[in-house]
């Protein structure tokens, strides 16, 4: 499990997990590399390479065992643990994420939410009550979060990330349009919505041209 | 402008655009490949390759002209045009996106929003009034959208995308946890939030291990 898996394969693991979960729900026992490739939008040979890279095993003449492979990927993704989340910034996006139910189905649990605006403090949203940023350190001592969801303006994100890191938070799901600079043992995954939309603008322009 | 630019470079264009915009606001006239590389988290040689791939030009001994290069990338990204957006699905995420102000600053304009729930029809959200999906075809004839933002359950996304395609929509910003199958002249960019969070879970697991 600790062996090296190339980054592009890691990025595809959640998608493998999603499709294998669907197949398991349909009571499919085995799946071929060809079928998996079609679902994933890859070639069969790429699927075989991926599977070999993440340590999955097929059975001669049957294909890949769906439940077993899903379980294996789940372990790689750390799905056996419940990860606790704190949402920092209760703007439109923060409020949407706090109410997003799918996370909890996937072993992620939102346990707190913060904002700098006193008017928002004390308001119940989803399963949590919004607290003021002043209470961050105290709250993290009492109920530590594994992951901070940063839905803050770009100007406030780095400073908030550093405070959270000092509180022991090591996972950062960053929606602020800025790249965070944190020590090496912090794991950062950014979702830059504006850039994603601009990429779509490029593709549209290109297709039309 | 119609020459081939590799996909990884295209994906970095919005980030180049963002940093060059910041530099232009600071009245910086020229920027070196080294400084740009630091901002972007790349090597200087990679920046030089990127710039050469997207057709930017440096000036001997000065570096890259900030305003000129930003303008060039803006043209590549189709920023001279205003793109119209329609949001399909007024759940938590759809409601957040409809109110997200940054898009309009970036030449994207939300002009309509739809839901299947009659209770949501007629409600004003952000700059638009929610309509029923029954009115989709009629609305698209009167006010065509360039891009559909799909914030729908996975089970409804493909069918909605096909209806929108039939209405002439060619850009799809897909938040549904499903891969869309559309004709080649459709441009699709997906934001799979669950997969992004699961990737963070993997990195966290791996860092701890």
Describe the overall structure.
The structure is a homodimer of 209-residue chains. In chain A, strand 7, helix 8 (154-166) and strand 8 (171-174) form a beta-alpha-beta unit. The model of chain A has no long low-confidence stretch (mean pLDDT 90). The longest helix of chain A has 19 residues, at 7-25. Chain A is globular. Chain A has helices at 7-25, 33-40, 44-54, 66-76, 92-98, 102-105, 136-142, 154-166, 193-208; strands spanning 30-31, 64-65, 83-88, 108-115, 124-125, 128-132, 147-150, 171-174, 187-190. Chain A contains 9 helices and 9 strands. In chain A, the strands form 2 sheets. A 7-stranded mixed sheet of chain A has the order 5-6-4-3-7-8-9, with helices on both faces. The first copy, chain A, has 209 residues and is an alpha/beta fold. Chains A and B meet through helix 1, helix 5, strand 8, strand 9 and helix 9 of A and helix 1, helix 5, strand 8, strand 9 and helix 9 of B.
Major β-sheet strand ordering of chain A: 5-6-4-3-7-8-9
Structural class of chain A: alpha/beta
Termini separation of chain A (Å)? 47 Å
* Percent of sequence in beta strands of chain A: 15-25%
SSE arrangement of chain A, N to C: HEHHEHEHHEEEHEHEEH
Strand count, sense and barrel status of the largest sheet of chain A are: 7 strands, mixed
Helix content of chain A: 40-55%
Tally the helices of chain A.
Answer: 9
What does the radius of gyration of chain A come to? 20 Å
Oligomer: homodimer
Biggest interface pair, residues each?
A: A-B, 60 and 60 residues
Principal-axes shape call of chain A? globular
Low-pLDDT residue intervals, each spanning 5 or more residues of chain A: none
* Residue-averaged pLDDT of chain A: 90
Number of strands of chain A: 9
